[in-house]
Design a protein that fits this description.
Elements: H1 3-11, H2 13-28, H3 37-56, H4 65-89, H5 92-95, H6 97-102, H7 109-124, H8 126-141, H9 156-180, H10 184-197, H11 205-211, H12 216-219, H13 223-236, H14 243-274
Helix pairs in contact: 2-7, 3-4, 4-7, 4-8, 4-9, 4-10, 4-13, 7-9, 9-13, 9-14, 13-14
C-alpha cells in the first residue's frame, strides 16, 4: 500500500470511528445483558476448560487453582479477539457489499473496523482478568503463591499491538478471498479450530517440551505463541521463557500485514466486479 492510500485511510478516521460505533451498537441492540456478554462468555468457557484440563486431565502449569484459571483467561480472552476478528473479517466485504460498492472510502477500512470493534469488546472483557489478578494477589499475600506485578506488566502493550497488526494483516487476506470464493470461509473456521489446539492456551509450552519437544520448532512460527507468552508474563510477573517466540511473533505479524495489504490491493478490482 502506498503512502497516498495510508493518508486516505487516516483522513477518513472519523468515518472509521462511525463504523466501529455502528458495529458495537448493532451487536448489543437487541440484547438484555448487552456488554455483560463480553464477560460471561469467556468466563464460562474458562471454567469449562479449567474443569476438563485442570481437574479431569490435571493441570500442567504446577500452580494453584486461581493461578491456573488466570492462566486460562490470559489465553482465552486474546484468542476470542483473534478468532472473532478472523471470522468477521472473512465476511467483511461481502456482508457490506452494497456500501462497499457505493462509497469511496478506502475499502481496507471495512476490515480494520471489524478488528477495532472486536478489540474494544476484548478490552471490555478485561475486568474478568483483573478480578482474578486481584484474587491471586490476595492469595499471595496470604502466603499461597508467588505472583508479583511489576514493570513486566508492560509486556501486555506489545501483546495488544502485535495482535492488532496480526488480525488486520490476516483479515486483509481473508476478506477479498472469501468475497471471491464462498467456500473459503468454511476453510477459515476449520483452520481456526485446529489453530486453537496448536496454540498454548489450555496447556503450556513446558508440556510441549516434555511430551513432544520436536513440535517446538514448528509451533514457534505461530505468532500467537509469543503473543500469549507476553500476556502471561505481563500478568504473572514471571520471566518469559519464550524469548524467540516474541521475536518470531513480531516478524510474522508484520509480515502478515505487508502480505495482507498486497493481497487486498491486487484482489480489490476483482472483488468489486464480483460483489
Amino acid at each position: 500500500m502506498d503512502s497516498t492510500r495510508l493518508a486516505s485511510i487516516w483522513s477518513q478516521r472519523k468515518v472509521l470511528d462511525t463504523l466501529v460505533r455502528r458495529d458495537l451498537r448493532v451487536r448489543y441492540a437487541r440484547s438484555w445483558l448487552g456488554y455483560l456478554w463480553t464477560l460471561i462468555d469467556p468466563l464460562a468457557m474458562a471454567l469449562v476448560y479449567f474443569f476438563v484440563f485442570g481437574i479431569l486431565f490435571h493441570r500442567s502449569t504446577g500452580d494453584n487453582d486461581l493461578v491456573f484459571i488466570l492462566y486460562l483467561l490470559a489465553g482465552m480472552l486474546p484468542w476470542n479477539w483473534f478468532n472473532s476478528s478472523l471470522n468477521e473479517t472473512a465476511r467483511a466485504l461481502y456482508a457490506e457489499r452494497l456500501l462497499v460498492r457505493s462509497t469511496n472510502i478506502p475499502r481496507e477500512m471495512w476490515v480494520i473496523r471489524v478488528v477495532i470493534a472486536k478489540g474494544i469488546e476484548f478490552l471490555l472483557s478485561l475486568p474478568v482478568l483483573a478480578f482474578f489478578v486481584v484474587l491471586v494477589l490476595a492469595g499471595v499475600n496470604l502466603g499461597k503463591g508467588n505472583l508479583s506485578l511489576n514493570v513486566q506488566l508492560l509486556a501486555i502493550i506489545p501483546a495488544i499491538l502485535l495482535q492488532f497488526v496480526l488480525c488486520i494483516g490476516m483479515g486483509l487476506v481473508m476478506a477479498p478471498v472469501t468475497a471471491l470464493v464462498d467456500d473459503f470461509v468454511r476453510i477459515v473456521r476449520i483452520v481456526l479450530r485446529m489453530l486453537f489446539y496448536f496454540t498454548p492456551i489450555v496447556y503450556s509450552m513446558a508440556l510441549v517440551d516434555k511430551e513432544l519437544p520436536e513440535a517446538r520448532n514448528i509451533m514457534i512460527w505461530n505468532p500467537l505463541v509469543g503473543i500469549m507468552d507476553m500476556w502471561r508474563v505481563g500478568l504473572s510477573g514471571k520471566v518469559g521463557v519464550e524469548g524467540w517466540a516474541w521475536i518470531t511473533a513480531t516478524i510474522v505479524s508484520f509480515a502478515w500485514l505487508a502480505f495482507g495489504l498486497w493481497v487486498f490491493r491486487k484482489l480489490e478490482p476483482a472483488v468489486l466486479k464480483e460483489i
